[in-house]
Amino acid sequence: MFFFTIRRVLASVLVLVVSSFLVFALCAASFDPLAQYYSRNPRPPQEFFDQLRERFGLNDPFLVRYWNWLTGVLHGDFGVTVDGTPVADQLPGRLMVTGRMILAAIVIAVLLAVIVGVIGAVRQYKPSDYTFTFIAYILIALPTFWFAALLKEFVAGGINDLLGSQVLYTIGEETPGLSLYAGGWELWSDRLGHLVLPTVSLALLSFAAWSRFQRASMLDVLGSDYMRLARAKGLTYRRTVLKHGLRNALIPLTTVVALGIGTLFGGAVITETVFVWHGMGEYLLENGIGQQDVNVVLGWLLVSAVFVVLFNLVADILYAVLDPRIRLS
């Protein structure tokens, strides 16, 4: 197990280095840090542009620019924004805001996918299976921004009216200014109220697709020879399904979840826009793409790549835990 993990870690590091190179090449070809100055009236003199090109290192060869950026990142320096603010000072706070929504969405989506997928497979072609299938296909067909808007407009208002107080919030990740004078449970309960709807929006759309994979995987396992052998040895049906079937059926779902992290980051950008969260999504759209700020976009893409590679590494390790034969491959 130890050497298996070491091999996967080294492979992940190599993938991350290649990803950083591709990310830098894409941003270097797509963004011009000087674009915002071209349309100014009057237009700055050529000496101004020459000084900026020297300041941003745009006169250096591409590989030199990439190496300077990569070595800076390894030392915690992601460069500065067009306003002169270090990107490294802004990323942690933004990441904490988006991270709690994504992590909560993953936990909820995985739990629901496993439960619904197993029930759908065990009770195949029963009313419960048809009901879950119908709900899953409806959620898969819904656009992210529209589903989030439905929750914001109807669910929040209905629950708040039912309870007679504002429990669910539709704007921001916390009440503005609350952290200046509140703390402890008051602050966290407020953040939880702001977290519910964005998390539910992101989790349900992910759960819908993941539950179909879990159902199909569970059906394959239920029809396998070793499951029939376990029943022939006298094990109860429940014990056979949970101990032998579910463990093997989780392997395909682990792959789907690991590969879906990038999709969750993309969905988080839209969800944050609908609920006006000041996280990584807003940082990318307004500070990065909106201002043609290449260092902001590079920071966002690199953080996303790190999470995708990290979750795939965790998935590789989980493979070995779920099926020890994988360690020998």
From TrEMBL:
Keywords: Cell membrane, Membrane, Transmembrane, Transmembrane helix, Transport. It is a multi-pass membrane protein. Belongs to the binding-protein-dependent transport system permease family. The chain crosses the membrane at residues 101-122, 134-151, 192-210, 249-277, 297-322. GO terms for cellular component: plasma membrane. It comes from the Bacteria. This is ABC transporter permease. It is found in: Cell membrane. GO terms for biological process: transmembrane transport. Residues 95-319 form the ABC transmembrane type-1 domain. InterPro entries: BPD_transp_1_N (IPR045621), MetI-like (IPR000515), MetI-like_sf (IPR035906). It comes from Modestobacter versicolor.
